Amino acid sequence: MSYVTTSDGVEIFYKDWGPKDAQPVVFHHGWPLSADDWDAQMLFFLRNGYRVVAHDRRGHGRSAQVSDGHDMDHYAADAFAVVEHLDLRDAIHIGHSTGGGEVARYVAKHGEPAGRVARAVLVSAVPPLMLKTDANPEGLPLEVFDGFRQATAANRAQFFLDVASGPFYGFNREGATVHQGVIQNWWRQGMMGSAKAHYEGIKAFSETDQTEDLKAISVPTLVLHGEDDQIVPIHDSAMKSIKLLRNATLKTYPGFSHGMLTVNADVLNADLLAFAKG
């Protein structure tokens, strides 16, 4: 397996498929998953002639289960370590959920300053800020995320099963087609990771204000969001992000869930490819 060691000594697992001289597409996964969550997109872009790269965030998947650094700054720096190690240039960075926050921080702090990013995509992404504050009164109250922490600490295995079986993919909606394999794969990915990384990652994805990250991004950016997202409400994220980004396009999907990349991969992949081609 392929690993890169970060400046603070953390081993980050990554996949690197396809022609080394092709334009790279780099995928950033959501909480509490792994690079495997991008299987449908990686195979699709590979068939379309791209080089595809995805890594497991520290504490997630096959990366080292370290004690510290479970915050957006380290997430972005770890992604940059992979990019530098592989010498990726003119890359398209695509992030889902927490991975969307990682992409925003990466592009603003590393990708654009280093001249290594061509485009960015935020899918069902957490920026600019999920938490309800005086400055963000439409956000979700702290008690919601305290509930996530309590459930993760008390019985992570059951909590992950409940999330995947219900709101994540919209399987709790009347008339939904439930895919047991998708549920089991979500659970499998989650349970590969570290409970500490998952517990502390809740603060990272809910309390990190990324307003300035979004304002700093100048590369073409695509914002995609499902209108029935029960995990990251569209009005708290995409609708605000599009107003902060300088060079962005918003596309929303009626009835689509937070996990639309998996259960609606045919639709999302076509839109991602169209944007990648510019």
UniProtKB/TrEMBL annotation:
Keyword Hydrolase tagged: yes
Example of a GO MF term: hydrolase activity
Keywords in alphabetical order: Hydrolase
Lineage: superkingdom: Bacteria
InterPro entries: AB_hydrolase, AB_hydrolase_1, AB_hydrolase_fold, Epox_hydrolase-like
Name of one Pfam family that matches: Abhydrolase_1
Location of the AB hydrolase-1 domain: 24-260
Sequence similarity: Belongs to the AB hydrolase superfamily. Bacterial non-heme haloperoxidase / perhydrolase family.
Designated name of the protein: Alpha/beta hydrolase
Lineage of the organism: Bacteria, Pseudomonadati, Pseudomonadota, Alphaproteobacteria, Hyphomicrobiales
